[in-house]
Amino acid sequence: MKLKIEPKELWNRFLVLMRSREGIVCLITAIGLSLITLTAAEPLAMFLSILATFSSFFIVTLSLNLETGETGIPQFGRVLAVLTGAFAVGAIPGRIMAWALGLPCGLDYGDDRVNYKVVPRINAVLEANPALSIGFFIFSLLIAALAGAAIGWLTSRPAIRLREAYLGISLLAFGDVFMWIGQNWEPLVGGTTGVFIPDPFRFTGGYRHIVMVSVMVGIAFLLFVFVEMLSRSPFGRTLKMLRDCELAANVYGRDIVKVRTRSLVLGSSIAAVGGGLYVIYVGSCKAATFNRVYWTFWPWAYMMLGGIGSHVGVFFGVMIFTMIRAFIVVKRHALMGVVPFDPIWLDTLLGGIVLILIVLFMPYGLIPEKPKTTLPHDKVEAMLKAVKQRVRGT
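Now predict its structure.
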């Protein structure tokens, strides 16, 4: 039997949605995105830039929300997994292609005098073979995910013993150590000069930017669906039980070590995919790009603005912050002399102010986390209605 929804009922549902907090935030976000895009000198370029930045940070913030919002781990080393994914994409797939083509692929691959000659030759081969380019892209993301999972497992070892501030500081230190290794050991990813990344979308010609951004948005959407489904699964409910009361999780026989390890492995793998996508998009990998401000503290700001534990809230938190930061970057030249400091620091100042306001007036974010039932809401209501009818009948 097919369920038919009358147009009037559909319209009423739409009105109810638009009157809710989610609907209001969605409307404001859509209006802001339209205004920022249309008032730019090049609307399409601005729109694509916002989407590309949003996709990378959305993936990274989703992984942070999985570990912190769902599991309760004080993850202040998110940059570590992002770095791992970026370094994996910058160091491994290009070397394999160079080896297959008989080009320098050893430790000298990271030398800028060698790398800038090798990568264009790899790009020429990829441009002439779309199937190979797609395979190269998929392989790069798989390498990033596996490397992220490995680093997540390694960081889970101290997570077994440390708690709260001690674990947060340890993860933060791990991220900085790995960044400085990449910054100072040239054979990894070129040291201070970085390395170029072979372009798997060069075969699309003048549509490269559009295609790349579309793929990034698609991957971000798929990961959003995956994380949302995971949070509704028994494993997701276990994560929340561990977050809310570790004693209760122990009482119900859950292995705390395994649960925390799986959360870190899965979250780090997702974050590494975000880092890999970012370096493929920009076409280069440089260790200094991945600092804790942009890849740890900003994702925390996005998550807190949207709502800790709410994946839909994370979506809007990342989008709103990305739009505002893009607008500030474009209008910096107009703000010279208007503000009493260098406008280059305006987005950082804005992030700090927003975090303070969120903590003071909106601690649960724009779209707070909602309890998820094991059954669909309509089935739960039907069961409650049936129980009430039975009670009245007796």
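Residues 310 and 369 are 4 Å apart (CA to CA).
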